[in-house]
Amino acid sequence: MSKKSGSQIELKKSVLEQCLCTGCGACVGLCPYQVIYADRTVQLFNCDLPDGKCYAFCPRTLADYDHIKKSLFNINDLTPEIGAVKGYYLSRASDPRLRLKVQHGGTVTALLELAMGEGLIDSAIVSSRNEEFEQEGRLVTNQNQLRGYSKSWFTVSPTMAAFNRIPDDRKKRTGVVATPCQATALAKMKTAEIPGYSGSDLPGLVIGLFCGWTLSMEKFHNLLVRYGASMADLTGMDIPAGKNILEIFTVSGLISVPMAKLDHCVRTACRYCMDSTAEFADLSVGAARFGTDCEEMRGWNQIIVRSDRGKELFELAIAKHALEIREASPSALRELKNAAAGKKKKALKNIVEKSHSTKNLLYLQNDDPVVRKYLSVDKKRKGKS
Ligand SMILES: Cc1cc2nc3c(=O)[nH]c(=O)nc-3n(C[C@H](O)[C@H](O)[C@H](O)COP(=O)(O)OP(=O)(O)OC[C@H]3O[C@@H](n4cnc5c(N)ncnc54)[C@H](O)[C@@H]3O)c2cc1C
Ligand code: SF4
Ligand code: SF4
Ligand code: SF4
């Protein structure tokens, strides 16, 4: 049985001291004891409560993630590689002016604009850069301001802290843009069993982002300095198909950093992360980095429709011409699933290396069917070699 509740001290021992903290912000904004400093989660004071929301909401505390998934999605839609799939398409915003401002096809921003415009949500939590060029969650209540918070920044955004700070009745009407670990935290908020707390109808909508990793602020800053740039110079970032580089757009031009030179900047917690497609979101959106014309595909997204609420919004987006879609080829879905399975295997390998045992999988249960599937693949391989 997984442990459903725990204290701040247990959070410290099992997550912060184990370098498992993803920086999601789900334990911050609930009380004065937990804060974000730069991109680190810091415990300012010791708290003596035995059961806390900080522990219960954290995506890296031990929980029955299989049970959470089965309670939130249709069991028949579940796949081991990428979670629930009701539909899989290529999409982009129909508005060409929006497409000029966004990361790829602008699917995320177009969906948020539509959900707000149609009154499905009345606010959204997105990510914004502060004066120190750190990412932070931002509550947007005006639909016309959403375009100002588009594009992807590959340093961590403690977005969940901003969500925690809004009143509970507003949370139900708020849409959240979330990386996979943040979408997991939101699922735990929804299903947490804490006396006097009910999160079952929060939040209003979760739009997930595909995610391979995020970068440590300090290490990324040092890397930029070596390339003669600074955080203040950045105008955008992207990972183009098939080139194995990170493109960093700056006020003085493009910097291309080979992935091998970037590896040491990846946050340690991301090495233990199994989810690349935000499996707990209503809809998940990523790059469409494949096909014959990679440059053209840069302006498109892959989208996975997961929940009934996600399906309703997606169908509305087609009906209202907020999104254009293309049918995705079976090979595109296969490619996505293979990449997602690859991340799961790698994370499990790193987890076992860290714990020195397949019986102790840190925040994962070893009877979880997805965990068993990808652990056993590794075991079979080892048996053969
Ligand atoms: C850290 C990170 C890693 C990613 N890794 C991959 C990957 O490996 N493969 C892949 O296919 N796609 C990845 N993506 C997703 C991809 O970069 C795009 O966000 C996605 O394709 C949506 O594109 P869009 O044009 O619809 O986005 P837009 O319409 O431009 O909207 C992007 C949204 O993301 C929010 N955002 C920006 N930075 C962050 C952040 N750091 N944390 C949380 N929210 C943020 C913005 O506020 C905005 O709401 C990653 C995104 C992030 C933030
Ligand atoms: S148990 Fe509650 S009050 Fe204590 S640190 Fe955690 S969230 Fe804050
Ligand atoms: S809730 Fe998020 S920020 Fe807090 S300890 Fe867990 S992973 Fe880190
Ligand atoms: S790789 Fe995983 S842990 Fe790291 S930011 Fe992305 S979702 Fe969170």
Can I get a quick summary?
The protein is of the alpha+beta class and 385 residues long. The protein is built from 14 helices and 15 strands. The site of one iron/sulfur cluster has 10 residues, from helix 2.
Overview of the structural elements:
- Helix 5 (107-117) packs across helix 12 and helix 13 crosses helix 14.
- An eight-stranded mixed β-sheet has the order 7-6-8-9-13-14-5-15.
- 34% of the residues lie in helices and 19% in strands.
- With 385 residues, the protein is α+β, with helices and mostly antiparallel strands.
- The mean pLDDT is 94.
- It is globular, with a radius of gyration of 20 Å.
- The protein folds into two domains: 8-214 and 267-384, no CATH class; 217-265, Nuclear Transport Factor 2, Chain: A.
- The protein has helices at 8-16, 53-57, 65-72, 96-99, 107-117, 159-164, 168-171, 180-191, 217-226, 259-262, 294-297, 308-319, 330-355, 369-384, and strands spanning 34-37, 40-43, 78-79, 83-84, 87-93, 123-129, 135-140, 174-178, 205-209, 234-238, 245-250, 253-258, 283-287, 301-305, 323-327.
- The longest helix is centred in the last third of the chain and has 26 residues, at 330-355.
- The chain has 14 helices and 15 strands.
- The chain binds flavin-adenine dinucleotide (FAD) and iron/sulfur cluster (3 copies).
- One iron/sulfur cluster (SF4) binds at residues 22, 179-181, 211, 213-214, 269-270, 273, 275.
